[in-house]
Structures are given as C-alpha cells and as structure tokens.
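anyone seen this seq b4? input:
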Amino acid sequence: MPKRDLNRIRELLLKAEARPLEPDDDFNDGYLCFDETEISPEDGYQLLLMKDAGLIEGRDASTGLFRITNVGHDYLDAIRNEGIWSDTKNAVAETGGSVTLEVVKSLATGFLKKKISQHTGIEL
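predicted toks r here
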C-alpha cells in the first residue's frame, strides 16, 4: 500500500491551481481534466487521499477529473510559501515525521501567522 506523500499532495494542488480552466470545463462542473500522461498511478493514490480529506472532489479523482474544494484552497494557502513549507516539514520531521493533514495545516498556519506578525507588528 502506498503511503501518503505530503510533498506530492502539495505539488498536485499547486499544479491543479495553476491549470487554466478550458471553455469546455463548464460542462464538467468546473472539474479539471488531466490525462494519463499527467497523472501517474502514484498520483492517483494521492488524489484519492486528497478526496478523502476533502481537499478535492471529483467523479473519479484518481484519474485526473477533479476540482480543488474551498478546504483544499485553504490548505494550499497555508502551505504555498516555500519557506513556510520548509519550516513545516522540518517541524514534522523533528517530531517523528508522521502527522495528519490537519496538523500540517495547523503548523503551516502557525508559521504563516508568525511571519505576518513579524512583518506587520500585528499579533494574530
């Protein structure tokens, strides 16, 4: 059984977000269509986990027909910045390397709030 890959989940979310909607996408309920050259079997498993977590929804997400949910956009916003992502991964590794997606999001949000507070002087 494959394992959850936090880096690949992040990469897939970034890839999906960057993909422009095509005119025909209206007929797919806004779902993005990736073909088999863009989605590997390993990616398909990560997409199923992302669907389970509510980050994406789709008719058959593992084959590349999906859209990012609002929850998925929130998760991506928390982990988007490379520095925040690096700090988050380091914190996870230092505590044993195995955490839930919710913990990853909470850690990243904490690092993001700290960065904003340092930049603005406003405590969040």
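The chain has two domains: 6-69, 81-120. The first strand starts at residue 32 and ends at 33. kinda curious what u guys think
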